[in-house]
Write a structure and sequence with these properties.
338 residues, 14 helices
Length: 338
């Protein structure tokens, strides 16, 4: 990310880094044959991973105009999400309005920002039509959670049908949940076959594989499940549904993005990464972005390869941007979700 050298260049530099980059199209991951020898060789040194992650927040703290630029970048990578049992069409419409203009107009004007939106809007299947109407005329994609979300335990043929219906309704991205039992029992062939079938059901829609990492038992299982899902054709791998007791963490993130790096070095295909659940503070978003930059490089800081699955995160980022401009924090009610 470009670092501005003076207050006068802050907003312009941030604008260039978030909005004015040329459109980049990555070749889609076609997958590969399941390589069980590669999977078996994958290990995870838990103590070393935890030490690496524990040191990161203090080492990668940014302030003032640099922080503002990183926060604008974070906004462009948010999958703005509502996945509640009491969702209504009106709530989804308000969420989509926030996705279209994620920061108050007066703040964007002072930052000289135009064209900033979130990376996507993520909803249940039933809410796709409302999101399609609310986002008409924009390039903001709709992501739909599918395959018996969040448990993923409905019959396979019903999960396949749900994917197809979500794509037909207008979803451009499908967030599927894997069967955790295949990971816990080490049945990598079944996980691969299931993931490959889901990828085929998605057609042209991109597929994000939710690993539910808090329920996989170990970081080694997280690493192996990540690799198998990429072999089966996943476009993104994602930490969590947001419904588990433990969701996105830095150690899990490090394991998953190193699996992404290994897959890229072997195949030449870039796979996206999406941490979801529990990321609600602006400072945490910057830490995740810093880790991505260090491990994968700048290319993975674009929304086609990195997303936050979040809702309340956007409100805290907006408060931090206002503090950057005014020196004072606003009340939460001044930054509504819609």
């Amino acid at each position: 990310m470009h670092n501005p050298t003076s207050d006068q260049t802050t907003s312009r530099s941030a604008d260039q880094s978030v909005v004015q980059l040329p459109q980049i199209t990555e070749p889609r991951n076609p997958g590969m044959e399941l390589d069980l020898d590669w999977v078996a060789r994958v290990q995870a040194n838990t103590s070393a991973i935890e030490r690496r992650c524990a040191s990161l927040p203090a080492r990668r703290s940014v302030k003032k105009q640099y922080q503002a630029a990183w926060l604008l970048k974070a906004i462009s990578c948010i999958d703005l999400t509502t996945l509640s049992g009491d969702d209504t069409e009106m709530r989804v419409c308000r969420l989509c309005a926030k996705a279209r203009q994620p920061v108050r107009a007066n703040i964007l004007k002072q930052l000289d920002m135009t064209g900033l939106t979130t990376g996507a809007v993520c909803v249940y299947h039933e809410m796709i039509p409302a999101a399609v109407r609310a986002l008409h005329g924009t390039n903001i994609p709709i992501a739909a959670v599918s395959t018996g979300f969040p448990a993923g335990l409905s019959p396979l043929h019903l999960r396949m049908q749900e994917i197809k219906e979500s794509v037909a309704a207008g979803a451009k991205e499908i967030d599927i949940v894997i069967s955790r039992r295949h990971v816990l029992t080490g049945d990598w062939q079944k996980l691969y076959d299931e993931m490959k079938a889901m990828r085929q059901a998605c057609g042209d829609a991109h597929i994000k594989a939710i690993l539910a990492t808090g329920e996989l038992g170990s970081l080694r299982n997280v690493a192996r499940a990540s690799l198998v899902c990429m072999m089966a054709g996943a476009d993104f791998i994602k930490t969590s549904t947001g419904k588990e007791s433990v969701n996105a963490t830095l150690p899990v993130t490090l394991v998953m993005i190193r699996a992404i790096r290994d897959y890229y070095e072997r195949t030449g295909y870039r796979i996206g990464y999406k941490p979801a659940g529990g990321i609600s503070k602006a400072k945490d978003a910057i830490t995740y972005l810093a880790l991505i930059k260090e491990e994968l490089g700048d290319r993975w800081l674009q929304p086609d390869l990195f997303r936050f699955g979040a809702s309340s995160l956007l409100g805290d980022i907006e408060r931090q941007l206002e503090h950057h401009l005014t020196g004072a924090y606003s009340a939460n009610y001044r930054n509504p979700m819609g």
